[in-house]
Design a protein that fits this description.
about 0% strand
Length: about 30
């Protein structure tokens, strides 16, 4: 799997939408 690429795209998406920041934090908390 291309995890690094997926993560980079995910991070860029979060940067575009600050509202997703809280959601991303919850996702990372599960990880």
């Amino acid at each position: 799997m291309m995890l690094p690429v997926l993560l980079s795209q995910f991070l860029s998406l979060i940067i575009q939408s600050e509202n997703n920041a809280q959601l991303s934090i919850k996702l990372f908390a599960y990880w």
